[in-house]
Design a protein that fits this description.
nine-stranded mixed β-sheet, six-stranded mixed β-sheet, globular
């Protein structure tokens, strides 16, 4: 048997044995009745398998897909048109880190424009889970690889905020699915301020083209720009431009002013993508805002 190279999603339902999720299977849809797009699930990582199952109500985490999720709307004909090598991939697992500073800001990074998947889109640092890693280990490794920030497990207070069913391209109108992930959004509390952490920031230009420390006011505006809807964006008297750190080809940082409209852009239904905050990131940021109201983080 080939050595495990990727951690894949396995689903359990009604006490049945875990089985590997299929690429064209909606993971959220597996656990919901009807067309709901959010459900509470439990997750665990066992023997290089990421297991999702329904446990005691109130003890799980939210699993969500966008209303326009391509896998949700995939027809039999469209599913058959997906190349066989892609159909056989299964569903991958990613970990994304919401790093909260002592003064309640979170780090967002803009993906390099040369990347094949979601180029020029704002996300938290993150990436694939590798064999024999814990979720926290994977998150800390990706955080260091992408931003240069090295945090030790004992220095942070981890909490899984939620799970996002991510498909690329994000809409069927933009092509058949090529990638299918469950992204674990993990909140880490740092005892340092964003200004202190900024001193150690050294992003990889191959992956990151800009960085931003977002406060709760900016985050509220970002999450109000719901992808797939036409509702009003809540700008709350924010300035028309936001200060970010731009990453040069050699990794140097420089101050840059980004129009606020970039961060509150919505995912386009067709044509080329635009600079924006990813739909999954908006989901995670909304959960982060709720966590600020909690009396204390989970240990």
């Amino acid at each position: 048997m080939d050595k495990v190279r990727r951690i894949l999603v396995h689903v359990c339902k009604d006490r049945a044995a875990p089985r590997r999720a299929q690429f064209v299977q909606s993971i959220t849809g597996h656990f919901v009745d009807g067309g709901d797009d959010e459900v509470e699930v439990n997750c665990s990582l066992e023997k290089n398998q990421f297991l999702l199952f329904r446990g005691d109500k109130g003890r799980g985490v939210p699993l969500k897909r966008p209303a326009f999720c391509p896998i949700k709307h995939l027809s039999v004909t469209e599913a058959a048109a997906i190349p066989l090598d892609i159909q056989q991939r299964g569903v991958d697992v990613g970990v994304a880190i919401l790093l909260q500073t002592a003064n309640q800001r979170v780090l967002l990074t803009r993906r390099a424009k040369e990347l094949r998947i979601f180029p020029n889109v704002w996300v938290p640092p993150g990436g694939h889970l590798e064999p024999d890693e814990t979720l926290l280990d994977a998150g800390l490794r990706e955080l260091q690889e992408e931003t240069g920030l090295k945090l030790e497990p004992e220095e942070v207070c981890p909490k899984i905020l939620g799970l996002w069913e991510s498909v690329y391209p994000p809409m069927l109108s933009r092509g058949l699915p090529q990638r299918h992930h469950i992204v674990v959004y993990m909140l880490l509390h740092s005892s340092l301020s964003h200004l202190q952490l900024q001193l150690s920031l050294s992003p990889s230009p191959a992956e990151v083209s800009a960085c931003l420390w977002a406060d709760s006011r900016l985050v509220r505006a970002i999450v109000s720009a719901v992808d797939g809807e036409d509702g009003q964006v809540q700008l709350d008297d924010l300035p028309t431009s936001i200060s970010v750190s731009q990453v040069s080809a050699d990794g140097a940082l420089s101050d840059f002013t980004l129009p606020l409209e970039m961060l509150v852009s919505r995912a386009p239904a067709s044509g080329p993508d635009v600079e924006r905050v990813s739909t999954g990131t908006k989901f995670a940021l909304e959960l982060w805002l709720r966590s600020l109201e909690a009396p204390c983080p989970d240990l």
